Amino acid sequence: MNPIPMLRQQFLRGLGGTLGLAALSKLIEPSALATPVATENAPPSPFQHHAPKAKRIIYLFQSGAPSQMDLFDWKPALAERRGEDLPDSIRQGQRLTTMTSGQSKFPVAPTAFRFSQHGKGGMWFSEILPHMATLADDWCQIRSMHTEAINHDPAITFCQTGSQLAGRPSIGSWLSYGLGSVNQDLPAYVVLTSFGTGRPDDQPLYDRLWGSGFLPSKHQGVKFRNKGDAVLYLSNPTGMSRDTRRKTLDRLAELNQQHFTAVEDPEIQTRISQYEMAFRMQVSVPELLDISNEPQHVLDMYGPDVKKPGSYAANCLLARRLAERDVRFVQLFHMGWDLHGNLPNAIRLQCKDTDQPTTALINDLKQRGLFEDTLIVWGGEFGRTVYSQGALTADNYGRDHHPRCFTTLLTGAGIRGGLVHGETDDYCYNITQDPVHVHDLNATILHLMGIDHTRLTFRFQGRDFRLTDIHGELVKNILA
Amino acid sequence: MWIDSASPRRTGEIPLSTSLCLFALLLAPNWSLAEDRIQFNRDIRPILSENCFQCHGPDERQRQGGVRLDKLELATQPGESGNRAISLESPAESELLKRIATDTPDLVMPPPETGKTLKPEQKELLRRWIEQGAEYQGHWAFMTPVRPEVPLHELETAYPNPIDRFLLERLKASGFSFSPSVDRETLLRRVTLDLTGLPPTPDEIDAFLSDDSPNAYERVVDRLLCSPHYGERMALQWLDLARYADSNGYQVDSSRQQWPWRDWVIDAFNNNMPYDQFTIEQIAGDLLPKATDSQRVATGFNRNHRLNGEGGIIAEEWRVETVIDRVETTGITWLGLTLNCCRCHDHKYDPISQRDFYSFFSYFNNIAESGTLQGESRNTEPVLAVPTPDQLRERAGLEKDMLDAQAKLAEAEKSLPELVAAWEPSFREKIATNTNSWNILNADSVSAASRANLTKQSDGSYLASGENPNHDVYEIKAPLSPGQFTGLLLECFPDASLPQQSLGRYPNGNFVLSRVEAEIRAPSLTAPLIAKFNHAEADYSQNGWNIQATVQGDKSKGWAVDGPTRKEICRAMFLTESGITIPENATIVIRLVQETLGQHNIGRFRLSSTGLPKGTIAIGGSQVPDSLRTILSLPTSERSDAQRAELHEFFRKNVDSPILAAQKRLQESKDRIVDSRKNWPNVMVMQEIETPRDAFILIRGEYDKRGEKVSAAIPKIFPPIPDGEPNNRLGLAKWIANRNNPLTARVWVNRAWERFMGSGIVKTTENFGSQSEWPSHPSLLDWLAVEFMEPTQVAHVDQKPVHAWDMKGIQKLMVMSRAYQQSTSRRGLEKLAELDPDNRWLGRGPRFRLPGEVLRDQALFVSGLLSPKLGGPSVKPYMPEGVWDETSVYGDLRNYRHDTGDGLYRRSLYTIWKRTAAPPTMLIFDAPNREICTVSRSRTNTPLQALSLMNEVTFVEAARKLGERMLKHDDATPEGKLSFGFRLVTGRKPTVKELQVLVSGWREDLAYYQGHPDEAKQLQSHGDSNSEVSQTVELVAYMLSGNVLLNLDECIMRE
User: Fold this and answer.
1) In a domain? residue B972
2) Separation CA A168–CA B750 (nearest Å)
């Protein structure tokens, strides 16, 4: 026998007030709270404050902190100051990490790379990002990003949760909580990770970065795994066919239904439907991951790594496939940008990992008509110092952590392409115009999803918490 | 700015909160409207706290218009505008009432931009309250609980347990009563799971069913409270609160060893330690007079916080974070207070100031700790060793060996004068001819056994790059001029290109040198001369990785230098015993062997040689002291006693002789004693430094923005530290565990209530401040709190008299209540459900999902796999492939390999817990990641949980073993076997209809697998445990039935 599928309305009524309303948007449930315009049988999300520009987000997180002055924020005048000590007037006594605070000299290290202008607006890109440069008129560069933390763990936690300390929900969890899931068979928040080739010892990532903090844990990001089942425990044990699984689930549903008759707990009906969802996922997830039907020209676009599971290129293709399936928030983490030494060689490798696949992803989205309602973000947790960490030699230098300015790129839904927002000084050390704090970026991301960041709140320990704490200003200038 | 009607309201204040939180809509049933007298705490405080206190509360800096509404004498003062928020003389003139009534956007309160609005009934409450005289009450939870009278005297005989009469009072007010009692089988499963985290066995069920004595249930409760598994179940929540884990957290997240503290907790629960003592020992056991080791282990509670070891961090910043973590965790765990709000500013809702916070901080500020991780994978000081009995015995043996070696040395010393006399002439000659100290070797070739590149640097050093294999050997060939060769100097340098900018090539910046080999080749030699190094010294060795290891021939040991934390040049010298004479045209071939730990290869190094004899050369250069040269130049008879002593000392230390040999043996036996301690488990504990650190208000909570100096003190709102107690951490602990503390007992009984009844009497179990939810049964909460501290109802638990703060006693009272024993069925309770949708009145039994740990333990238990062993080091059960490696190449918690045997089947609270990659199945079932203190877990119901129970190997193996138990069961029929399995899992017998479903399914599976024996074999192969039956096909059919049973809603829920 087949379990009785419950209509959503029945389901809502059945639950009565036993669970919070927010708790109704199950981890993987077609959320009636999802779309801005109320569908016929469901109220709109209370957090959908205005019509969204973006239906979904692909956040390409470059973990370890890419060097802004080697990629985007070119400072040609530094070539003449090569090796000079960074002037005190620029450093202004700001704190440094203990990796370089003991250095007696802070020699200015101009970039080793050539820059050129691209697109109608003449946006500057480094020679090691030739593919991304072809989209110059689509990208918006924010060169005036800044943050507080100076070490990776607190800084990346801050980008993700708006706090340096553990315990707050991640941005994807906030979106899942606020807007629910559109797709019936996939989570609202999917995370994909890849190791970089620039450093053999990439800065690690942590579960917390996509965790739900104090939000109900169904809002946590589901990290697709690079080994074994992409979604944990998806496969039936060997020796058990799909047909046999179906039969055990039928029996299970029948027994649960009998018990429901005795106790009438609506949670039992939810359980039955979650088992059905699990059964559907056993098909939908492998289908999602199966790229055998992708045409060769599409695969070629993403580059040679695309067939290597767990590579950034493979994850970019997967991101497009998730976007097609309306997964609301897809976040890639690419590790390996933390280049304290040997930067010129290593950053080439990092760019080789990411430049072509990033560009392919955007072009692919364009070709499928998804670009207009997908927001794409490219950036890391802080910037890097203009001075060399360790010796500055003819062809080598390293750069330490620098929270005072860095560059983040956005494109897609609601973004003014071809725009450079914000400016840094001649040393790429301090911001001289239009500073954008991480809270401001997060507020703007939520805005594009139709959410007022000051009103997306959750009560915990007697306080209404927000992703942006008590901060965050919309960066209006970058909005189309 | 509330009352200032003369000017439009100032804008720009960003509201912290809006009232849109959905959970906040689910308020406790409010029955106050039916009554006449308004109660401030119940009716008014929630309105003011939610809507007004942010700008008109205790926080001075946020205050608007000079108006404060949290105290009567302040609310009746004129504000900046001259108007009074509350006017007792003419209530209608109260500005508060005017401003909540107006529609003018610039005037209305709360301001529209806060997104808050008052409901008409709330406005009405405020109006009536002011009319009735605006009587304020202190926040209820900050007043010491007084035992209230138990209501419904007339029902005392029918309901002797006071808990029931408190609950009935509310139910009856709306015309309801309790649901019927649940059947005895379900009750037994409920109480057994609640108290031990395991289900009952069929024998236990039978015994209970056949016991018709009136105290049968009480006997069950006593038995369960005395089970060793009670302590394990209790520990589960305590570990969440204590943020307990087996790793240090943050980015490296290497291993630590706190399990001796975890075992202390289990023991304390099992021994029914009174909660006040349980509190005092964990917060300040180290400060108790004549503190025992056990009391010091208890203080591990406040060392369970994370520790950051990221490169480049500023130690003080993280030390401050650590202290703040203790304040927050202690505040939440014992007091239900969110003190962390005051880290940056005065509390917005509770009368606790930033000064109070840093005064409280001061109690935890005096621990001898650096703030960062010391070394990569061990506990960080202060620690306490906790040897096992075997280890203590081993040490006694080693101490005896050491005494023997001492005696032998004394014996050898007797011949010292003769030995010195015989050695002197040759030594005089040597130091006369040799003067050079270290000569940098100018290598002809330098290569690595692997494909690593070794590139010469301008200072004569070599830098490794490229491949970093597991084990590498660097080979250096360099010419040597004729003369003597006695030893080598190895210098290792940090380099920016190396991991962590440190010295080694391992990702954490460390290396381990196993040994150094050297040989001298020359045309005149038929075989190379092997240099045998038997003496090594270093200017720095990592604890446990001493340079001596390089000359002792043990491959598993070597020299390491704390690369992750100490990024300085390290030097080591290796000397031969007697030196080698170098022929013409000689070449020295040196091999640096690195084979102890994977990838721990040296990053940048330089080599030098010397010809000076041992004793005359040091790492820094030549070291024959001038005074020794003087002594040697004097005839023996003219030397003073002091000079003779100096010469003897030099001889003892440096010259190969029976004395040196005896000294070596003594040193080795001492080293063995030190080494043996290395295997002793230790645990991080609290320990005060001698001079307390100064504490300051930290402006905006930043470690380097010090404001005014503060001293240790309890927040002013509370009663002071009890008389005669010191004003330190011990005094604080005794203040928390005091009868007069308003919060401690309430917070504890409320959490226990939540565990048994589904939600707390105060639903916000993590917060008892003024933003907490009004209790569903305030009198019951106070009664329980007082009863916990001063028991009157339960006399004994298993014949042991109940004492003050008796955790077993108060829980016994709760589970003995009629309310606890109700049926959970909602049939026929539609009316009640409408009025009390959350079942806060407890008109029926609560039904909720079991925690992930209990689900796993239950599956292991019913399948017969569970190992009952208590305590000990954490274990490694099955995990998904690469569970620790998908996002990190740091730390020592990588490359997870599951245990074999017992470790697979221990209770889940013993599973190793890496904070940044916690056990995935537990996270799927809502476990926190243990990075910070967590009070409540959510109870979600998701498809990922379904997939875990369907397919995770633990549950598949459990289904197989459960199938085996069914197959081996005495009853020959499938009906009998399946009934047995059903009963193992649910604690009851199946209904006829249920059995029909199971049996027909079983037949279907049997038929299928008879035709597919290969699939049956595959299915039987899951899990490490052996199969004890040979009928594969039949087994597999029962196994699938077991899989269905373990996925039943009834199995997943606590009925």
Assistant:
1) yes
2) 25
Residue B935, judged by CB atoms within 10 A of its CB (0-12, 13-18, 19+), counts as buried
- The pLDDT assigned to B616 comes to 80
Chain A residues touching B498 at Cβ < 8 A: 341
Task: Please choose, from the candidates B44, B194, B18, the residue with its C-alpha nearest in 3D space to the C-alpha of residue B134.
Answer: B44
The answer to whether residue B444 sits within a structural domain is: yes
For residue A116 the two structure tokens come to: 């050129």
**Which pairing describes strands B472-480 and B462-466: parallel, antiparallel, or unpaired?**
unpaired
Residues B443 and B479: beta-carbon distance below 8 Å: no
- Who's near B763: CB < 8 A, 6+ residues apart? B28, B773, B776, B840
Asked whether the predicted pLDDT for residue B816 surpasses 90, the reply is yes
For residue B559, the domain's CATH number is 2.60.120
Please report whether residue B867 resides in a domain. Answer: no
> How far is Cα B195 from Cα B205, in angstroms, rounded to an integer?
16
Which SS3 state, helix, strand or coil, does residue A211 take? coil
Q: Which CATH number fits domain A8-478: 3.10.50, 3.40.720, 3.30.730, 2.60.120?
A: 3.40.720
Higher model confidence: residue B265 or residue A151? B265
More confident site: A420 or B647 = A420
Q: Return d(Cα B841, Cα B761) in angstroms, integer.
A: 9
What SS3 class is residue B999?
A: helix
> Among all residues of chain A, which has the CA nearest to that of B1016?
A239
- Domain final position from B137, B162, B178: B137
Which letter does DSSP use for residue B44 in this model?
I
Report the amino acid identity of residue B965.
R
Residue A242 is classified by DSSP as: H
CB burial class (10 A; 0-12, 13-18, 19+) of residue A292? exposed
Q: How confident is the model at residue B528, as a pLDDT? A: 93
pLDDT tens digit sequence for A225-249: 988 899 999 999 999 999 999 999 9
Nearest C-alpha of chain B: how many angstroms from A92?
Answer: 16
Q: How far is B665 from chain A (nearest CA, A)?
A: 42
CA distance B120 to A406: 50
Cβ <8 Å between B20 and A390: no
Phi–psi pair at B1054, nearest 5 degrees: -95, 115
Q: CA nearest B987: which of B942, B1051, B909?
A: B1051
Range of B987's domain? 951-1054
pTM of the model: 0.77
Whether the bond into B110 is cis, omega within 30 of 0:
yes
Task: For residues B478-488, give the mean pLDDT.
Answer: 90
- Taking a C-beta distance cutoff of 8 angstroms, is the pair B647, B631 a contact? yes
State chain A's mean pLDDT as an integer: 89
Share of chain B above pLDDT 70, in %: 96
Chain A residues touching B956 at Cβ < 8 A = 237
Residues 362-401 of A with CB under 8 A from B: 389-391, 396, 398, 400-401
A100 pLDDT higher than 60: yes
State the burial class of residue B704 (Cβ atoms within 10 Å of its Cβ: 0-12, 13-18, 19+): exposed
Give long-range contacts, CB 8 A cutoff, 24+ apart: B516-519.
Answer: B516/B488, B516/B490, B516/B550, B516/B574, B516/B590, B516/B591, B516/B592, B516/B593, B517/B590, B517/B591, B517/B593, B518/B488, B518/B574, B518/B588, B518/B589, B518/B590, B518/B591, B519/B588, B519/B589
Q: How many structural domains is chain B composed of?
A: 3
Residue B29 has pLDDT above 50, yes or no: no
Residues B907-938: tens digit of each pLDDT: 999 999 999 999 999 999 999 999 999 998 88
- B324 lies in some domain: no
Instruction: Give the A:B interface size as CB pairs under 8 Å.
Output: 333
pLDDT at B435: 56
Q: Which of B577, B611, B645 is the last residue of a domain?
A: B611
